[in-house]
Structures are given as structure tokens and as C-alpha cells.
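Team,

Forwarding the record for the chain on the shared tracking sheet. I've put the sequence and predicted structure together so nobody has to dig through attachments.
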Amino acid sequence: MAIGRGVIVAPDRTGKGTNALWRRPPDAIFPSYGPKSLLSHMSIAHGRGVSFAVMPNAKLALDIDRPADLEAAARTQVGAATRAALDALGYPALGRR
């Protein structure tokens, strides 16, 4: 997706948080943090008259905030460095079925 001035958000797996934030220009909006940051980004963008889009991306949707998130990550196809880290943390069998 090509944009001029605007904001694109890739949400977390709950659809409420922000796991990736593209801004053009970089100061189009200021970043917001927390479990409801997607709504905050949308509100700020609309308030500043900046185009806003949500683009879900499965590879960006998973955060690692809790131990259960490691198990979820281990069940997905991950890159070699992530797989090595999961193996080192004791999650080697998951995702290799």
C-alpha cells in the first residue's frame, strides 16, 4: 500500500494494541503505548486530519508479553534466530509436528 501523508497500524492479536506503526512523515502523529493504543492512534490521526489505515499482519500480531505467548510463538513458523531462542528457553518441541 502506497501512502502519502498518513499512518498505517498493524494491530496485535487482540485487535486493540499496536505492534507496528508506520508514519509518513515520521511526525504525522506521536506514538501511543498500551493495550488500547490502536484506538489512540486512530483518534490522534483523525484529530490531526491524517489518513489512517489498519493492516493486520499475522507475523506482526503476536507480542511476547507473558510465558503463554512464548508457547504461541513456538507453534508458529518463525525465523532461525527466533527458533534458536525458543529452543534455548525450553520450547523446542512446539511447532515441529
